[in-house]
Design goal:
Helices cover 22% and strands 15% of the residues. By secondary structure, it is an alpha+beta fold. The protein has a three-stranded antiparallel β-sheet with strand order 1-3-2, covered by helices on one side.
């Protein structure tokens, strides 16, 4: 459930925390990929643009449940809330090469 969007890195973590308090029983997450220099916590999501930021709330496991969460989000002031299927992108794997000493 996409609640808000903007330019890449434009939605601060404190905004995600504020929204999490509005949805205490649901996971609220945001795109912060390559925003804070914290490589260990960089997460990419599928079905999104890398040039845009978003904050979202988990809408559930069915379309009917997601539609209810969307209505709840709109009632809480997120007029542009929309249902969208997102998933974490698979992690990037670093290829390591071993070079034998040929001398």
């Amino acid at each position: 459930m996409d609640l808000a969007s903007g330019k890449a890195c434009s939605i601060p973590e404190k905004e995600r925390v504020r929204i999490q308090k509005l949805f205490p029983k649901r996971k609220v997450f945001s795109s912060r990929f390559e925003c804070d220099g914290d490589v260990e916590n960089n997460v990419k999501y599928t079905n999104t643009r890398e040039t845009a930021a978003f904050v979202a709330v988990h809408g559930g496991t069915s379309r009917a449940e997601a539609d209810k969460v969307a209505a709840e989000a709109r009632a809480k002031g997120f007029a542009d809330a929309n249902v969208r299927a997102l998933a974490r992108a698979p992690p990037m794997r670093m290829a390591a090469r071993h070079f034998a000493n040929s001398s």
